[in-house]
Specification:
By secondary structure, the protein is of the alpha/beta class. The protein has 11 helices and 10 strands. The radius of gyration is 19 Å and the shape is globular. It starts with 6 loop residues before the first strand and ends in an 8-residue tail after the last helix.
Length: about 325
């Protein structure tokens, strides 16, 4: 990616900002003001999902920013995601429409399948967001896996594009094998793959495959373990922000460790969606285009790759939801 290129051109010509604000774990009470602050300092890419449970508050922030003249709707790139309980084709459009209502929008720029995991339908009036458990009040609550082919779900996603409710569609947490299969049956190929990606988990073959196939890649958790400490899914020793190699490169450029990690993602040709609830970090995370890592520095960070995945349903579903549900080998 060119040093000053701040967007990634998707299949079909749409341009997605390379830096977005990830909204997972953003407190609903903070969301409206933080969205306003983010848009004020220059963010135009907001990465949301129904499962995050904060789309109403995010929508309030978006509406406020537009009403105050901070941006126009067409200036924003807003992503949301189809949750696992809505994979049946008849539930796909209602799920999207619920997100649109909550976000106060007429359309999404990108709608994605959140996980290649189909769960039994939970009506909105029963529980929304539905979460992972089918019945959290059961004596032994578990996930209830559903037999819905991913091809059927994707067909319903394509209909959202035809209807004008979304500009483009994509997938999250797919493997190369699932992508190959999707490309074989889709009439609208996926524009974006969103995956966990940081120097401890480069996913180099998957990223290369996507680049060869014209699928843009967005890396979530681009700072590594930070989002997972509070969930007990990572330990302090896993922190990349304190890693001596990251710290050394940080000193060389007089940049924060977070900026080094985010620049690594951008320079590798992928979008990044760091989350922060601190206004002071917003501009810092956005300021990645006035410096460049050397090829040696990129290689030193690449060499940290050890396959360390923090967001793995094959691990956390069994621990948290009493159901073994692997999707990665």
């Amino acid at each position: 990616m060119a040093l000053k290129e701040k967007t990634i051109t998707l299949r079909g010509g749409l341009k997605m900002p390379a830096i977005g604000l990830g909204l997972w774990k953003l407190d609903t009470g903070l969301a409206p003001e933080l969205i306003n602050s983010a848009i004020e300092v220059g963010y135009r890419h907001l990465d949301s999902a129904s499962d995050y449970g904060n789309e109403v508050a995010v929508g309030e922030g978006i509406a406020s920013a537009i009403e105050r003249g901070m941006c126009r709707r067409e200036d924003l790139w807003v992503t949301s995601k189809l949750w696992n309980t809505y994979h049946d084709p008849k539930h796909v459009r209602p799920a999207l429409e619920r997100s649109l209502t909550d976000l106060r929008l007429d359309y999404l720029d990108l709608y994605m399948i959140h996980f290649p995991i189909a769960l039994s339908y939970v009506p909105f009036e029963t529980r929304y967001p539905a979460g992972w458990f089918f019945d959290p009040d059961a004596d032994e609550p578990r996930m209830n896996l559903a037999c819905v082919p991913l091809a059927d779900t994707w067909g319903a996603m394509e209909e959202l594009v035809h209807s004008g409710l979304v500009r483009t569609i994509g997938v999250c947490n797919y493997s190369t094998a699932l992508l190959r299969d999707l490309l074989a049956y889709s009439s609208i190929p996926p524009a974006v793959l969103q995956i966990e990606r940081h120097p401890l988990l480069r996913q180099a073959k998957l990223v290369r495959f996507c680049q060869n196939e014209g699928i843009a890649v967005t890396g979530f958790s681009p700072l590594g373990a930070q989002s997972y400490f509070s969930l007990g899914m990572a330990a302090s020793k896993d922190s990349l922000l304190d890693h001596p190699i990251v710290s050394d490169i940080s000193r060389r450029h007089a940049r924060s460790a977070a900026q080094i990690l985010l620049r690594w993602g951008i320079q590798g040709g992928t979008a990044v969606i760091p989350m922060t609830s601190r206004k002071s970090r917003l501009l810092e995370n956005l300021s990645l285009f006035d410096f460049e890592l050397s090829s040696d520095e990129m290689q030193r960070l690449n060499d940290l790759d050890c396959g360390q995945r923090f967001n793995d349903p094959g691990v956390f579903c069994e621990k948290a939801f009493n159901t073994f549900c692997p999707i990665y080998e």
